[in-house]
Amino acid sequence: MTTPSAAVMRAAMVLEVTSGSRRDRKGAERDRGPKRRGYAAADIPLYLLIDRLEGKATIFFEPRGDDYAHIVSVALGEDLPIPAPLEGVLPTRDF
């Protein structure tokens, strides 16, 4: 039997999708700022933000302290490269 402490798993990525509503700009601002910094501080390797208000997909990677060292953004509809540890390509044309 595995004990909870022996079965600790880390998240490889967190995904947030902003509301498409202009009325929820504050929620989108939280996703772009405080949440991003919190995930980096928690050492989550990848943070994927689908920002429907801005019309783009952004991957933040390589957490360093309370932010990410690297950021790649594409317009929704383009392919977004996903770095290690997941490595791949995310098509965003249906977002």
TrEMBL record:
<keyword id="KW-0255">Endonuclease</keyword>
<keyword id="KW-0540">Nuclease</keyword>
<dbReference type="InterPro" id="IPR008538">
    <property type="entry name" value="Uma2"/>
</dbReference>
<dbReference type="GO" id="GO:0004519">
    <property type="term" value="F:endonuclease activity"/>
</dbReference>
<dbReference type="InterPro" id="IPR012296">
    <property type="entry name" value="Nuclease_put_TT1808"/>
</dbReference>
<dbReference type="Pfam" id="PF05685">
    <property type="entry name" value="Uma2"/>
</dbReference>
<keyword id="KW-0378">Hydrolase</keyword>
<feature type="domain" description="Putative restriction endonuclease">
    <location>
        <begin position="13"/>
        <end position="88"/>
    </location>
</feature>
<protein>
    <submittedName>
        <fullName>Uma2 family endonuclease</fullName>
    </submittedName>
</protein>
